[in-house]
Amino acid sequence: MIPDLGEEEAQAAAEAIRSGWVAQGPRVARFETEFAATVGAEHGVAVSSCTTGLHLALVLLGIGPGDEVIVPSLSFIATANAVRYVGATPVFADVELTTGNVTVETVDAVRTERTRAVVAVHQGGVPFDTAGLRKAAESWDVGLVEDAACAAGSTVYGQPAGAGARVAAWSFHPRKLLTTGEGGMVTVDDAESAARLRRLREHGMNVSAADRHAAKQPVLEAYLETAFNYRMTDIQAAVGLVQLGKLAGLVAQRRALAARYHALLAEIDGLVPVRDPAYGTTNYQSFWVLLDGFRTSRDEVLTSLAAQGVSARRGIMAAHLEPAYADVTPAPLPVTERITRESLILPLHHKLTEADQNHIVEVLRTLA
To answer: Which residues are annotated as active site (predicted)?
Structure first.
């Protein structure tokens, strides 16, 4: 992934620096409002990363020691780690093969009387079935956190991914379509939750540092609960505002490149590329292919691509196979393990040319 950053972002960052307001301030507030509107949410709360956003989302839901939170193992490890941050126990659910996402059925298979929440991921930008899982979570009386780290610009049932979510967390890491370098956002559907999230990200203060500095009279702040320092800077938000204006164009470009990949790869047996689910569209933050009867192993394919100057990556990780979770014995996760073992992510970014794609596909053709 190559971030689409240029002179406009550089100028916006420079203007923030010249303004003298570089910490969380007016640009962060504007970015929160505009991002929330873009993804169809009522409120946005900017944070330092999606990981800290997931942490705050679980704090908001009151999750703690003794609770179980169902998460996909097939996700970046931060999804499971956030559960441990609040002292709860992550329980790994399997995913469906076509989308790489948890479903009502895979979540229900590992649900117990201790389940207090589910963290569902729009994996690689491919949206999960929000309607089904939101309805199920409500019927089970458990909280649902939507890990939308990769999903800016994806759609579900004709709406932006995240629209209507009780709480969703977003990433602006450089591997995402919309980047602020580091940074994230939590979107929620009610003002009370947004207000508490703003306190939680800023040491539990009852008045933000920006409001305190803007006041004409001295403000004696109070600290209402033990909280965190998870703020975004105005420099990052300035870059994010420029990036937000590019989002629709970036999604359109990536979907066009993905369509071309689909056409070219259709000629090669044994490769199954990721596609839109029936209920939505993906932003193709990642373009992965599953090896299904391919004669060459995944690792050999990666090695051969690298030898030809192609920077592909292994498929999405499985957290339960990492040393950090060696103490966890999950229920069987056959689809998760197959996807992480037999998939790879092909290059897809704004600088990718048709010649690049032709070369990548030709190398794959020689390995089929």
So the answer is: 176
